């Protein structure tokens, strides 16, 4: 029977309505000052697909990591089949029947499918692949995988690899399957295939959890939806509710749970919104670009930035915002379309030409890309301008000028560092961010692109950063602010665009900002139809 | 002042790991000697006596420093930029052959200084030419230079051996070698010593490299590339170009080291002549923690090991490759010492990752 093949240790045939398989009760988890999970309950039933929805940073992944043994909760307890359980490590979780498929796959590309599947199972010293191979063969057929157990994983597509990941955890007798953003790497056809498999697993009594921020997928697939917001559980839509109401009502209800009740931001102290938009500084015409994995990340995107405005880009992480910023900065080649700065076309001219033309770019990866950890604060402050006077003349460095420049920036931006010659690694994240911002502003950019400039900063530093960006615009420049923090975008933006799946799906003028519409666009790429909010 | 120490590159704390590693290598090497029934203390006594304390030993040590200094200064340029040039030996041989052929063609016809300059230039070009192939492969096809430069060593060994049997051979002699440069046309001695001026050439190379990294824009950019390539891309630094230049420069210096040995020591190029400076240069550059000026004492030390080791092999009946074993042990102990140093300083501060040597060791570990 297919049932046996899919799960060597078959789950009990208890359908819905039996005992809950997992109960997480009052889970709290704190990271430094951040309360990532605040007294969260989650109940998983066998034979049910359960979606956990929330914005970036709402605590979805933390909650799942607690269940999969990556983190220990600070408070609360977990019951498995009604019995208190302690899950110390991911291996511990697997042994207790909880398997996780992460966004980043854990397969070894140079090993065959079967070797990957049995890797890490307790087989003793001798490897008996015969039995495993027979089981695997049926599972592969069941999963519509047209491949043999001997195929090396590197020959498989992303969608196929994900199915192997699922097989791998099921092979270990998993009865609770956690999937972290499973569709983010898949093509639409692959998504359909994945959903078919998950539905089949549901029929076999597996409790499936998908963590997602894609509202439509959650509604398509799941029997029960839990919504998290700022670490707290703010609502559950149980199967009865979902069945009783039509799709549009459920959708509005979830958006309300995720985004509703925010204070209106108009009149906040950082906001200004200068009157008439000035001349155009940056023009993107039908720009497209590929992401790191070669798939299209920015699709046919057009945008004008004007003197004096802060243009906010909202969107759930991974919808092409980072790639957009890199294309503008010249760090990523565009595959089609054109980019013009102040009327000059500079498509794909490279970082230094674009930076000379007046584009500044503050990356979201401060340590990995924005700075050189082994060098001093002063050296980092001139990383992009080292070839210019007064920091160098012809080939020769002027260390004095470099030092003086850094000291001025430290003073002006209140960077907390013992001295300009201190190693950059000894600074806190907020101070590194201030330094990177100072470095860009010192180059007097006409257009400043910032990707998540307040990420991980304390409130005061974050406010300082936002205020600086606002001033930059007020001084007659343009700022493109990419952020996953909707609140700060609402605060400082004159216009706000929403990116979804590589496209700019909507642009709002200040005064038309409507949180729930924006939220819907972030989650689904389209506005609600017909129903008035 | 820490700032002054950092700027002048003479902070002493990172040296501790290197010195401990050297000491440990001697201890472990001694255990090997004792285990094979040799008298370790006696062997080490001969090593020091012959390599350092005798007049001829010291002269030989100083002579041998020259190629090490020249090759290491080039290697440093590559390693600081995160380029792993394992092909020093091949570049050395091709450079040596180029310079020997050039010298043979010019000797007697032009003033000696002109010939020497031409020979060093030819050595440089030969080394660059040999590094050019891996560089092009890297730029064109993204092939890892670690593999290609390493493989090019074997190609160089056989190509040069073939050339001195055929086109480049001295027709008057049966043995496969180039025409010998007469003694009176070789590099002159430093006044008051028996050491030829190659040593000064080596010191000049080191000083040039030190200036490159301390005071010039390209040096600054190479350092950025070596420490965080993504940041270099982000900052608009021409990463690919500079990495190629670093590889070519290190090849050119290796070739000049070859010219130095032809005109300072051998007088000609022989088939299959490979002194194997590449590995020694690697060891000493790492033990000097990628610091240009520290290369000088380490070059002296390794040169002493090579010279003293020869005498030790003969007199204490120790295999000649025992010195290679010591070098290998030093690198192994160094890796362990750096690891311990890092763990220790991670606990106290987060400063360790800043050390260029540890960073590029880590980078090496990460790059496949």
Level-1 CATH class name of the largest domain in chain B? Mainly Alpha
How many distinct beta strands of chain B? 0
Oligomeric description of these chains:
heterodimer
**Please, what is the average pLDDT of chain A?**
86
Which shape of chain A, going by the Cα principal axes? globular
pLDDT under 50 segments of chain B (min length 5)? Answer: 1-10, 350-368
In the CATH scheme, what's the topology name of the largest domain in chain B? ABC transporter involved in vitamin B12 uptake, BtuC
Question: What does it look like?
Answer:
By secondary structure, chain A is α/β, with parallel strands linked by helices. Chain A contains 19 helices and 22 strands. In chain A, strands 6-7-8-3-9-10 form a six-stranded mixed sheet, with helices on both faces. In chain A, strands 16-19-20-13-21-22 form a six-stranded mixed sheet, sandwiched between helices. In chain A, strands 2-1-4-5 form a four-stranded antiparallel sheet, with helices on one face. In chain B, 74% of the residues lie in helices and 0% in strands. Chain B contains 15 helices and no strands. The A-B interface holds A 329-331, 350-352, 355, 361, 363, 365, 368-376, 379, 383-384, 386-387, 392, 395-397, 399, 419, 421, 423, 425-426 and B 2-3, 6-7, 214-218, 220-221, 223-224, 227-228, 230-231, 233-236, 238, 349-351, 353-356, 359.
